[in-house]
Amino acid sequence: MYYNKKTTVFHDGQWMKAEDANANLFDQTLHYGTGVLDGLRAYKNTGGFNIFQAQTHFKRLQESARKMKLKFEYSVDELVNLAYELVERNQLENAYIRPLIYSGSNMRLEPTTETHFFMGAWKWAKFHGTEPLNVMVSSYVKPNPKALPIDAKVVGNYASSVMASSEAKQLGYDEALLLDHKGNVAEGPGSNFFYEKNEVLYTPKTGTILPGITRATIFQIAKETGTRVVETDISPADLETADYAFFCGTASEISPIVSVNGESLKGKSWEESASYNIHFIYQQKVLFSEYDGLTIV
Ligand code: PMP
User: Fold this and answer.
1) Which of 88, 136, 232, 255 is deepest in the core (most CB within 10 A)?
2) Cα–Cα distance, 272 to 267 (Å, whole number)
3) Which helix (H) or strand (E) covers residue 279, if one does?
4) Going by CA atoms, what residue is nearest to atom 1 of ligand 1?
């Protein structure tokens, strides 16, 4: 599903076939979740393809590594060029790109000086698409920000995401909405959350969420379109009066939510919402390179 015999990946400074790339069973990340990752998307455009916000994603990867005290010496420009080469080598256009920094062989609960870097890409089928989602407030909460850097993409943070998503699917919902440790609405398992009421957008403030790049792009589009965005504490009860809601993230873009815990949201048609307009503009934005010279033409 993620690779075949022809797939090339970048691993520890080398291009190699995915089937020849190996990790060690004693790698610390495998046992204790100490690695960091990111997720980018390449979009086919008229000039070839564009990796949306490539620099911002790789800056975040560097920051995530720093927060987890993982040695990582690639520059942002090197990483951007490697990502473009990866997509080209695999003859992909619409793709998901996964860089991962993982710590090497170490069974102690102590820092690991040996780190490894992997980057792979695969053809991207839409995650949620625009199918409206029925979500449930999960019984699993986001990890406490005092337990792990929650604003970094730490491998171990995703254990709670997988639990929440599995619970939601088992109970017949499409996705989970996680609260933070204080009981406020936080985010989806791998996406940020917004709701719309009287044409104003509300989203959880930073501190207990991953401040996503899509979230930041939505702020930018909202500013351009004159839509007000409020970053605030959101209680699950606030959602009862919401007109619309959506998840957003690199993988899923903007996914409308039609119900929370079986209660339908109040808005009439998603297409008439301010959120839909933002989604529409987002889909145009991702096609164009923000960085001259970095898009393959
Ligand atoms: N929250 C979590 C927990 C995530 O994993 C992601 C995906 N990276 C997001 C939010 C959305 O972030 P972005 O828009 O940068 O993809």
Assistant:
1) 255
2) 9
3) helix 274-285
4) 191
